[in-house]
Design goal:
Layout lengths: L2 H9 L16 E5 L2 E2 L7 E8 L2 E12 L2 H4 L11 E8 L4 E3 L5 E6 L6 H12 L15 H18 L1 H10 L4 H13 L5 H9 L3 H5 L5 H11 L10 H17 L20 H14 L3 H7 L5 H7 L9 E3 L2 E2 L9 H23 L2 H13 L6 H8 L7 H15 L8 H8 L1
Parallel strand pairs: 4-5, 5-7
Antiparallel strand pairs: 1-3, 2-3, 3-4, 6-7, 8-9
Helix pairs in contact: 3-18, 4-17, 6-7, 6-14, 9-10, 9-11, 13-14, 14-15, 15-17
């Protein structure tokens, strides 16, 4: 038995309320269990309890062992002076004292909890399958699973707001700049994400705007700041880029990053840093007011826009500078398009909607996730194996959040699927 389980039982009144008495023998009726408090202070606020013939309104504190009231020094804490009832699994005390020497009645629940409910909880906690409810989730109502996945996908979007807000703060509230940096990060497809975001951060859009239409200069900016123009070249194209960057670096006082931030080992040629940077340059050359276009356009704008981007013809015959090789993977592929939509565009519009109170943008971000097919990875495949149906990226984003936030830490009591299984 844990306090979190007791909180759950109290919150949903999953105990026998008939014949419930305080330790002193007075009958108790729970009119309202209160509002669950997950921060410091009493566990439930604004409860309404009838003890004997008197109705009380106030807070509830819950412990497994009644002694914990004193162990946690609640009797010395003014935050607990409005507690009207001490709810415990077991205690030897009839009352506990609060700061002003008034007494608070105790109620013991150990004989009022159904054993089958405890057994269900224990089964979830002891389960050795990949996630706690794996053995029973296939029999769970589809609507309950669907609603939980949507809730989890929204939580996943909310978890990405912090990073976006940091970028927004650093750019003095420039949403276009944040869009540029996020697109760069997720164009990196994980392995190059940090490096591409660093590159984009060092080249503000106001500098790129001065060179719109000049493909060579924009490519020189991208490759130069990324640190990939430090070598001695034999091909005309990188020689030209290096010469242009030496000029632009002085003109705009640009830094040069350490090329070691990019990874080459165990990377497919189509995902080499050079190809991703070439695609980033193509994006930069076409992304004027991209954030505004994302706000104004419908959800089907992004895919054809990304597909239309193509790199300098040099990369059709190269994967690296000075090394000729046929390259058929110059355009941004469908998988990367989905990564950009799901991980950059949808969270960005969601954050903008939340930041400005624009619910249409919040819903648009969810519609973008609904537009794309379910993602396929080890986690989503595992959940599919045990009975989760994913119809879109909205569902698979929910599965990823469910796994990380609820299943791995076994927080079944906070999950509506776990709730359903517990109470079935």
């Amino acid at each position: 038995m844990t306090e979190s389980l007791l909180h759950y039982l109290w919150k949903f009144r999953l105990f026998n309320n008939q014949g419930l008495q305080t330790k002193s023998g007075e009958p108790i009726e729970v009119l309202h269990p209160g509002i669950h408090n997950t921060n410091s202070g009493p566990d439930f606020f604004n409860a309404k309890i009838k003890i004997g013939n008197k109705t009380w309104a106030g807070n509830i504190e819950i412990h497994v062992d009644g002694k914990d009231w004193y162990t946690h020094r609640h009797h010395k804490d003014a935050a607990y002076k409005n507690v009207i009832l001490h709810v415990v699994l077991h205690t030897s005390s009839t009352y506990v004292e609060c700061l002003e020497n008034t007494t608070i009645p105790c109620v013991e629940l150990q004989n009022n909890i159904a054993q089958n409910l405890l057994a269900q909880y224990q089964n979830l906690m002891d389960n050795q399958l990949p996630f706690p409810c794996a053995a029973s989730v296939a029999n769970t109502n589809e609507l309950i699973k669907k609603n939980m996945l949507e809730r989890a996908s929204i939580e996943r979007l909310e978890s990405k707001i912090n990073h976006i807000e940091r970028l927004l703060k650093n750019s003095n509230g420039n949403w276009e700049q944040v869009c540029w940096q996020l697109m760069a990060r997720y164009l990196g497809s994980g392995i190059h994400g940090d490096a591409l975001e660093q590159t984009a951060t060092q080249i503000p859009l106001k500098i790129i705007a001065k060179h719109y239409g000049n493909t060579t200069q924009i490519e020189a900016l991208i490759f130069g700041v990324a640190g990939l123009l430090q070598e001695t070249f034999t091909d005309d194209y990188p020689i030209l880029l290096k010469r242009e960057f030496n000029y632009l670096k002085q003109l705009h006082q640009l830094p040069t990053l350490n090329a070691g931030i990019f990874k080459w080992a165990k990377t497919r040629p189509a995902n080499f840093p050079t190809i991703r940077l070439a695609q980033l340059a193509a994006l930069a050359n076409a992304a004027q007011s991209l954030f505004s276009k994302l706000l104004e356009s419908n959800i089907h704008f992004l895919t054809p826009f990304l597909h239309s981007l193509d790199v300098n013809t040099y990369w059709k015959t190269h994967f690296r500078f000075n090394e000729a090789a046929e390259n058929k993977f110059t355009r941004i592929g469908k998988n990367t398009q989905q990564i950009l939509a799901v991980n950059a565009v949808a969270p960005l519009l969601f954050a903008y909607g939340k930041n400005t109170g624009n619910e249409l943008m919040v819903e648009k971000s969810l519609d973008i996730l609904r537009q794309f097919p379910p993602e396929k990875n080890a986690t989503t495949n595992l959940y599919k194996q045990y009975g989760f149906t994913a119809e879109s990226a909205l569902d698979t984003q929910g599965i990823l959040q469910l796994n990380h936030t609820y299943c791995l830490p076994k927080k079944c009591l906070n999950c509506s699927i776990g709730n359903h299984i517990m109470q079935s």
